[in-house]
Amino acid sequence: MLHESRIKLLGRILMVGAIVGSFVLFLFLVFSGLSRWGGRSLSLLDPTYASKFIPIIASVSEHQATTWTSYFFDLHMLMVLIPIGFFFCSYGQKEITNYGKIFIILYGILAIYFSCVMIRLMLVLAPAACILAAIGISELLLKVRNIVRNFKVPPALTVGQ
Question: Could you give the CA distance from residue 2 to residue 120 in angstroms, rounded to a whole number?
């Protein structure tokens, strides 16, 4: 039976080994030429790549850049609430580090970027938009609730004094 300290050490060794092994495999595939990026993947990183080198990919309407009207028609009211969700995830409760909020911030930023590059990837943005908007509306309602709870009605003025 292993002691708790040995289990933690074994876990750390396995984690470092997996990270180093993945990095070595990545370097091998990149420098050996066995693995190449596809045209669609490169057009995500460089939006002008497909129009320059692979016109057949650039001609497909799903691979075109997203217009603002697509955002307004697809996301509706979420467009207003997404920045509020980003704000409350970023600046709310500084004393508490919440990895879930950090994850949703990164997911939201990446989803917005990739949906800008290719209209097909609005499907990737939809869950992030819903989560960020829900956080925004929830925090706004909590603030409003606290204001309403702490509201003190001024004493009524009597008539004739």
Answer: 50
What does the pLDDT look like over 13-56, one tens digit per residue?
A: 999 999 999 999 988 887 887 777 777 777 777 777 777 887 87
Neighbour tally for 79: CB within 10 Å? 14
Whole-structure pTM value:
0.69
Q: How far is residue 122 from each of residues 7, 49, 62, 84, 135, measured CA to CA in Å? A: 43, 20, 10, 20, 20
HEC per residue, the chain: CCCHHHHHHHHHHHHHHHHHHHHHHHHHHHHHCCCCCCHHHHHHHCCCHHHHHCHHHHHCHHHCCCCHHHHHHHHCCHHHHHHHHHHHHHHCCCCCCCHHHHHHHHHHHHHHHHHHHCHHHHHHHHHHHHHHHHHHHHHHHHHHHHHHHCCCCCCCCCCCC
Q: How far apart are CA 51 and CA 35, in angstroms?
A: 22
